[in-house]
């Protein structure tokens, strides 16, 4: 009966920690909440504050049920638009919030804490950076504070979070052992959330698409080169080839799409790289797409990352989490010296009723420059010699986009220039196609890698010339050469739309040397985390285990796991005091023993087997003048030794205890020796 009553009691400390934990756990997932879910969470939190201050009572059962049913029904209706994973996250958060509002006993608190740990793990699906990991460890500690306060009601807030974070720290060695030893199995709970919005390249291109990316500081990928890092002008990261134009949008033709779908069984026979090669490793951020990034003429060196006939690389699985792969590029190798008639036809086709002025201009240039090479040079000079300028906020164009840009507005960014060059090249009889990807990169000297951000997205042109194959042309370099040679920042750092969506980005600190150094250092830490932790795959695990135990087999692996877990268990047990034995050198005992030794020198001996209070009575008989001070000293000794005092009270008691010991030593020194026979009696 008494235990049931205790189970119903929730201290105010626990209620306060529940309020803090609720905000801490739900806030990292705020951008995943539907409007309805967010509203219910807010209602539950405000209601719980009212309960804490005694303004309202627990909501009636029917109201909680009504909220739960309506929320679940709303989620069922919007699942198709937000994605299955987001729907599941919202459902779990709703359960967490509704259980939180009706919490009345300790069992409810334990359930809330367990669901809280699961929500923390779900947060890690969306962001695995080291900074988010540290953030989630802090939230784990806050969630653990609820459990600590549940079973230690009289402790202060400071001692609660100190114990909770100690427990979290003690769990880290165990997590490390499991991370190193357990097989790397694909997570069954990871559901690709294709409905979530991810900033990045699209598989189609309109005039305004890449300009929008200039507002974002999101990381696209990092690359580490085995040897010298190429210059900024050499860093053209190919991702997509767009060769079909309908008058407004560039897209891939069906042949390319079919090849991508069957990349596993249709591996091209491209031979070995020819000429100079560049070897590097790429760590790509999640995009929920399949294409990956490589410099000109890329050859994948990683299993499950495939080569395409157009010298791009491709993943059969959508990139739903960070992926690391090796690439060898041969920038001087020719691409497709012979062109299939069907591919040539596709790369010459244009809509019949599209941009008549541009077509007429191209025909005039063809008559004036019969040689394709001369004609392309003339096109590039046209961009250089006329008053074109590069801007992220160009004027609007009408239905005849190319005509408006070439002959009226003459203002735009890479997509405008590349689209126009492909169009007039085709109209003049030269096969041409659009390539999208990224250009340039920020070199981090602290860790030796290149970071490529979304605002570095770029579009350029590849034209096919007989005997040479596909060659790259970038008309942007004719209007804004610093964009290509020095990077995006060199030309747009002062423009209003540059990083408009990232006003608090660390990239805004580049103009402050000390802060920029700090930014690069933090970025380096995150890079090493990505390489050694997120990139810890089966191959790396096997290599580490081989270094530890030699040839890996099941018996050695089991033995290693048992030994590691045992050592961690022993260390944790020792740290929590399971193997702790009383020591005479402890401060509390040490002072008490010193006083006993001082009394013994005066003939007052503490017999074996009697407690501290019984010895006080003996001191009263043998040294009445000393006894009151010794009694107070003994009571403080008992309080410090055997009572679970709050930290503040314990500190005060210890301070008094030390003063009493000093006073007693002086008094005992002045005490006359007692007859040993009296002491023994």
UniProtKB/TrEMBL annotation:
Keyword Membrane: yes
InterPro entries for the chain: Bact_TGase-like, Papain-like_cys_pep_sf, TgpA-like_C, TgpA_N, Transglutaminase-like
Transglutaminase-like domain location: 406-477
Transmembrane segments: 36-54, 84-101, 108-127, 133-151, 163-182, 557-581
Gene3D superfamilies: 3.10.620.30
Keywords tagged on the record: Membrane, Transmembrane, Transmembrane helix
Coiled coil, from the record: none
Name of the protein in its database record: Transglutaminase
Native source organism of the sequence: Shewanella gelidii
Source lineage: Bacteria, Pseudomonadati, Pseudomonadota, Gammaproteobacteria, Alteromonadales
